[in-house]
Amino acid sequence: MKIYKKAILPLDFQANGIASGIKRSGKLDLALLYSSVPAKAACQFTSNKIQAAPIRINKKYLKKNSVYQAIIVNSGNANCFTGNRGLRDAEETTQILSKAIGVKKNSVLVASTGIIAKPLPLLKLKKSIPKLVMGLSRYGIDKAKRAILTTDTFTKEITVKLNIGSQIITICGIAKGAGMIAPNMATMLCFILTDASITQRALSKALRDSVNNSFNCITVDGCQSTNDAIITLANGASRNNLIDTGNKHFNLFLKALNIVCLELAKSIIKDAEGATKFIQIKVEKAKNFAQARVVALNIANSNLFKTAIYGENPNFGRIIAAIGASGVGVEEKDIKIKVSPLNKKEINVDVSIKQGNACAVVYTSDLTPEYIRINAEYN
């Protein structure tokens, strides 16, 4: 297994990114990921009860179709809280693209990120899609990964190559996210492409398991977005021995996908808005993973804890308070806390609660005046 800290497209995938004019800055804001052969899709979406139009359209297409070939993504506008117009705009975007690349409308998935409650400038997309399609290439991922960003300060990307039988398969992931980061799906946008030949149930299970141990274990500010989505396409172009949940190849694929998801999740925390610290919180000796994760996330979402870490202030009563507020019944005498030196950029917090043998690890950042400035000015 080989890991590359860059995006390398799998077989039969192409990509592109352009500036369509959605962003006033003139930066890249429209991306396309395309498979020249039909692919299976596995998706995870936000559990926020207010869901953006692209997510609602994707769910509709996922019920009607079994193969997919493209993902179109815009940044700078969330197309959320835009009513029926937003739904029409998202669906028309897929229709325009499908005609341009010659595939069925419901084989195109769509994603948006940016300002909520502003209509999508559909005319700009209509004018830009032909150029977007014309520029598709094997190397277009370098533009696509930049076109999905909003307040990010760097791109999030990783590629893993591994052998399944005699064939090499590739898993490539790109993501965006720096603020409005909380669990219960992923709170960001992430796109994973692979040329693996894999069954639908194996792809869905692998994504579900990987997300649970990565994107569902990160938090920046406890604010859950309306647009969160992870979309995975698997086109089978490597022609490897078919991966299924019951065979030996599944665990290899899952291991590789875990690496992709966890590295992208950690990258989001490292790029958290205004952050100066990367914090790992490990809760051990819990009854089960769910209990350990609840305790870890309650610490990670404590503003008092996060500001203490920013100030390098060893006031660990804030950790104790967060453990108690988690709702998990823990005796004082059973709590043990260990914290690494606070003057480092990476901080480890280890908590033992003497409830069992389970463990969970959560990742977060400190809370700084810069986070407040960024979000006070975001419009």
Strand content: 25-35%
Number of helices: 10
The first-to-last residue Cα distance is 43 Å
Number of strands: 13
Task: Give a structural overview.
With 379 residues, the protein is α+β, with helices and mostly antiparallel strands. It has two domains: 2-270, L-amino peptidase D-ALA esterase/amidase (4-Layer Sandwich); 278-377, Ubiquitin-like (UB roll) (Roll). The protein contains ten helices and 13 strands. Strand 11 (336-339) and strand 12 form a beta hairpin. Helix 1 crosses helix 2, helix 2 runs parallel beside helix 3 (122-134) and helix 5 (200-212) packs parallel to helix 6. The longest helix has 23 residues, at 248-270. The model has no long low-confidence stretch (mean pLDDT 93).
Per-chain topology:
Blueprint: E1 2-4, E2 13-18, E3 30-45, H1 53-64, E4 68-77, H2 83-101, E5 108-115, H3 122-134, H4 141-147, E6 156-164, E7 167-176, E8 189-194, H5 200-212, E9 229-234, H6 248-270, E10 278-286, H7 289-300, H8 303-310, H9 317-325, E11 336-339, E12 346-352, E13 358-365, H10 369-377
Parallel strand pairs: 4-5, 8-9, 10-12
Antiparallel strand pairs: 1-6, 2-3, 3-4, 3-9, 6-7, 7-8, 10-13, 11-12
Structure at a glance:
The protein is an alpha+beta fold and 379 residues long. The protein is built from ten helices and 13 strands.
Key traits:
alpha+beta, L-amino peptidase D-ALA esterase/amidase, Ubiquitin-like (UB roll), four-stranded mixed sheet, 10 helices, 13 strands, 33% helix
